[in-house]
Write a structure and sequence with these properties.
The complex is a heterodimer. Chain A is mostly helical. Chain A has 15 helices and two strands. Chain A has one domain: Cytochrome C Oxidase, Chain A (Up-down Bundle), CATH 1.20.210. Chain A has a two-stranded antiparallel sheet with strand order 1-2. In chain B, the strands form two sheets. Chain B has a five-stranded mixed β-sheet with strand order 3-2-1-5-8, with no helix packed on it. A five-stranded mixed β-sheet of chain B has the order 4-10-9-6-7. The longest helix of chain B is centred in the N-terminal third of the chain and has 34 residues. The chains are: A mainly alpha, B alpha+beta.
């Protein structure tokens, strides 16, 4: 596609790691406006919180290993499920996506940096503050928020603990961070493309992020509005969500899911982008049906804004609404199906090799598709009356988020880390990490389908004896999953410190502007725009 | 009407669902044991069976799609390996193929939507009910009111706390047993109107094919026509606070004659225990048992409450203050908080026992023995609606 690795040596700045003093170190990371540094910060934050949120999941699974209250009390259990959900979404998957965007988008479109570097710094540093505030609610008097990450009123309004107000403020900050980040990504992609990088030449990862950023701009203000109404109901005597004052608890759910459903596509669309980069590389073949992939991405995003009430089938929405939301939700299967079929067609008659990134990508196709299947099942409104709020739902959304988003991002790290740090990861450890993670994911989450169908509701700290067996299996799987991630942590640290030198190309089948740069890329890449072949 | 329903059910099932179910069942090594249950119950109402058939039909269709997609991936993983010298083809688009996998899924989805729409419309049709039950959720119990028969009662978890905290062996229906089940006649169309007094709950009994959210201040409906006598169990499905896992549902479906007999029994008044038998010892024992079941989820068994959430009773001014104020608070609750009005929920003796226990446990040691008569006296001074005396 391109050829240009020219750099003006005079403009080159020394890499920050050269500055050794602690004050210099802190100053550098606190004030950096470099997209690569900020990408690194996002990814480090995400990885840290992955272990924090994961540890919470393990406490939950320890409690559920056997019937009876054994490890935590029911109130703290509710705090844990709330925090696990919020942290995994807002502090793990979203920052991981933004971190990849920061590193990759400028390098993939031939830009020297993000369009708004200072804004970029600000949108990152809001995040650790928001997450710290969120996590600190656990230590507050009355305990942390204990009503699930969906924050349903009136459990969160009239009945919520005092710390709920801090949670609301934290959600506002998370929203501001996302909105600023989205604006930056949109402006960068529209304005900073190298000459000749036309729209239909953009790598799929850039496309998916452009669509995701617009989606974030549509939904984040709605969430901010909903939690602000919650704040008013709690403190200023309003009754938006209280029937006694003419409000409606269902209003909260409508507002929340108008944010909440597109949010899951915010989490998964960048993952789609990653898969669309990895599969062609290791199939040594161009992405099949690029044009239709772009259209499908946009279609998924648009449809996702029109289907929110499928989370509310059992709440008593009228028949007409049930039917409309059922049909609209089923429709999402069409563009999602196109994506899966096109990935399969990309692999078909390729020349496949199975390095760690490709293993995660193939596992993504298998398991995300399974999550998609259960998604279609839940779209069927009458059946959803049995699935709703059961462990079937827990199985479904973990199948789309763990082997979906998380697998894609783990794959992305293995795929691009050699480019970023100029060192190759340990392939043998990568394979161990993949296989343990793959097996443990299924051992953990597959039995949850059975539990839900057999009648186990979600968000319960204790359960009837008939659910004991599969819960024990799921808990064993969860602990294997958790410890397998330590291999990943070790592998990443080991790679950065003492991995073998990587070539500029890294993967023989890789195409795109980032592979024309050296490994690691210069601190300021593409200060002269690359030339793109027409 | 019955014939019509039967026809619809037969139409709703695809012929290949049976074999697929058999395959799924045989793949699971322990499907014979109930504890390894992997599928929805087929249930005992036309609605639950319609849902089940729909569920199996969709699984069948998806299984076929899955076999095709996974089959191609596995084929290409085996055949097109770089290590075996496979040369990559150069094609990167094929309009015909892309049209096919846009249009065919769309048609399949239409095929799924038609039966789903029919079941949905049927589910929504609550007209012509023989019997109406009002279901009211509150933290953490269900209240059933037979609107036509004038019977109403609360249904509480009957599993003792000792089983939950591991001090006693768990019995077979651990967390799925209640003190008073909902008794329903079979072969009658029962309409449920569902609401809540505090937070959102959800009334879910898989075998009836009903899950209906209970929203405070709103009433939503569902219906069932049970055609097999038996005991069917479920529980609250919407996170509703600390006791969410502890509000089960038990439905006892009986024949029409048994139902009429049961209704007759409910109308006999219960004899209230006389104050003469009321001793400190019996009141404390009964009060402790009741407190641990009804009050300890919030106030904790040791009376310490949860700071900033639920008040402590071991350091409270109420539990050592004037008896009449203490009784009033328990009778009327605290409007706008999680403290419910227990006046309508418990009889005088039960309330007297709980209040006696609260006034003498955890070092409160007031020595007060509260009698059912005292509770009755306070009850008669209260306006029946709570909160009327609030400014």
């Amino acid at each position: 596609m391109t050829m240009s690795t020219q750099h003006d040596a005079a403009l080159e700045q020394p890499h920050p790691n050269a500055r050794r003093s602690l004050a210099g170190f802190l100053k550098h990371w606190l004030f950096t406006t470099n997209h690569k540094d900020i990408g690194t910060l996002y990814l480090c934050l995400s990885l840290t919180m992955f272990f924090v949120g994961g540890a919470m999941a393990l406490v939950i699974r320890a409690e559920l290993f056997q019937p009876g209250m054994k490890v935590v009390d029911p109130d703290f259990y509710n705090v844990l499920i709330t925090m696990h959900g919020l942290i995994m979404l807002f502090a793990v998957v979203m920052p991981a996506g933004v971190g990849l965007a920061n590193w990759q988008i400028p390098m993939m479109i031939g830009a020297p940096d993000m369009a708004l570097p200072r804004l970029n710094n600000m949108s990152f540093w809001i995040l650790p503050c928001a997450i710290t505030l969120l996590a600190s609610t656990i230590l507050m008097k009355g305990g942390g928020p204990n009503f699930g990450w969906t924050l349903y009123a009136p459990l969160s309004t009239a009945f919520g603990p005092p710390s709920t107000d801090f949670l609301i403020f934290s959600v506002h900050m998370l929203g501001i961070s996302s909105i600023l980040g989205s604006i930056n990504i949109i402006v960068t992609i529209i304005n900073m493309r190298a000459p000749g990088m036309t729209w239909m030449k953009l790598p799929m990862f850039v496309w998916t992020w452009l669509v995701t950023a617009f989606l974030l701009l549509c939904i984040m203000p709605v969430l901010a509005g909903a939690v602000t109404m919650m704040l008013a109901d709690r403190n200023f005597g309003t009754t938006f969500f209280d029937a006694a004052g003419g409000g409606d608890p269902l209003l909260y759910q409508h507002l929340f899911w108008f944010f909440g459903h597109p949010e899951v596509y915010v989490l998964i669309l960048p993952a789609f982008g990653v898969i669309s980069q990895i599969i062609p590389t290791f199939s040594r073949k161009k992405l099949f049906g690029y044009g239709l992939m772009v259209i499908a991405t946009a279609a998924i995003a648009f449809l996702s804004l029109t289907v929110w009430a499928h989370h509310m089938f059992t709440t008593g929405v009228p028949l007409g609404a049930e039917l409309y939301f059922m049909y609209a939700t089923m429709l999402i299967a069409v563009p999602t199906g196109i994506k899966v079929f096109n990935w399969v067609a990309t692999m078909y008659r390729g020349s496949l090799s199975f390095e760690t990134p490709m293993l995660f990508a193939i596992a993504f196709i298998f398991l995300f598709t399974l999550g998609g299947f259960t998604g279609v099942m839940m779209a069927i409104a009458p059946s959803d009356y049995q699935y709703h709020d059961s462990y079937f739902i827990v199985a479904h959304f973990h199948y789309v988020l763990v082997p979906g988003a998380i697998f894609a991002f783990l794959g992305a790290i293995y795929y691009w880390l050699p480019k970023w740090c100029g060192r190759m990861y340990d392939e043998r450890l990568g394979q161990w990490h993949f296989w343990l993670t793959f097996i443990a994911t299924n051992v953990t989450f597959f039995p949850m389908h059975f539990l839900g169908l057999a009648g186990m509701p979600r968000r319960i700290p204790d359960y009837a004896l008939q659910f004991s067996n599969f819960n024990a299996v799921a808990s064993v799987g969860a602990f294997i999953f958790g410890f397998a991630q330590l291999i990943f942590l070790y592998n990443v640290i080991h790679t950065i410190r003492s991995g073998k030198k990587a070539t500029a190309q890294v993967w023989d089948g890789a195409e795109g502007l980032e592979w024309t740069l050296s490994s690691p890329p210069p601190y300021h890449s593409f200060q002269t725009p690359p030339k793109i072949a027409p | 009407m019955v014939k019509q329903e039967k026809m619809k059910r037969e139409k709703g099932t695809f012929p290949f669902v049976g074999p697929i179910l058999a395959c799924v069942a045989s793949m699971s090594p322990c499907a014979a044991f109930a504890d390894w249950e992997i599928n929805l119950p087929r249930g005992v109402t036309p609605m639950s069976r319609d849902i089940y058939d729909l569920h199996m039909t969709i699984i069948g269709i998806l299984a076929v799609i899955g076999v095709i997609v996974y089959g191609v991936v596995i084929y290409t993983i085996i055949r097109h390996r770089h290590s075996k010298g496979a040369e990559a083809a150069t094609f990167d688009k094929n309009l015909t193929l892309e049209n096919i996998w846009t249009v065919i899924p769309f048609l399949i989805l239409i095929g799924m939507a038609i039966p789903a729409t029919l079941v949905m419309m049927d589910m929504d049709d609550v007209a012509d009910a023989d019997l109406t039950i009002e279901i009211t959720g509150s933290q953490w119990k269900w209240h059933y009111s037979y609107l036509d028969q004038g019977i109403e009662f609360y249904s509480n978890l009957s599993t003792p706390p000792d089983q939950i905290y591991g001090a006693a062996k768990k019995d077979a229906w651990y967390l799925r047993e209640v003190d008073r089940p909902l008794v329903l006649p079979i072969n009658k169309k029962v309409r449920f109107v569902v609401t809540s007094t505090d937070v959102i709950h959800s009334w879910w009994v898989p075998e009836l094919g009903i899950k209906r959210d209970a929203l405070p201040g709103f009433i939503y409906q569902a219906w069932a026509r049970i055609d097999k006598p038996g005991t069917y169990r479920g529980q609250c499905a919407e996170l509703c606070g600390v006791g969410h896992a502890f509000m089960p549902i038990v439905v006892k479906a009986v024949s029409d004659e048994d139902f009429s007999r049961w209704v007759g029994q409910q109308k006999k008044p219960h004899a209230a225990p006389r104050t003469a038998q009321w001793t400190m010892e019996t009141a404390m024992a009964r009060g402790k048992a009741l407190f641990n079941r009804r009050c300890a989820a919030c106030h904790q068994e040791n009376g310490s409450g949860i700071p900033a959430l639920f008040p402590a009773l071991n350091t409270s001014a109420v539990t050592v203050g004037p008896i009449s104020q203490h009784i009033d608070l328990v009778l009327n609750g605290v409007p706008g908080s999680a403290m419910q009005a227990f006046g309508p929920q418990l009889d005088d003796a039960a309330l007297a026992a709980i209040i006696t226990y609260e006034r003498n446990a955890w070092g409160n040691d007031t020595g007060n023995l509260v009698t059912p008569d005292q509770v009755r006296a306070r009850r008669s001074t209260q306006p029946t609606k709570r909160g009327n005396d609030q400014p």
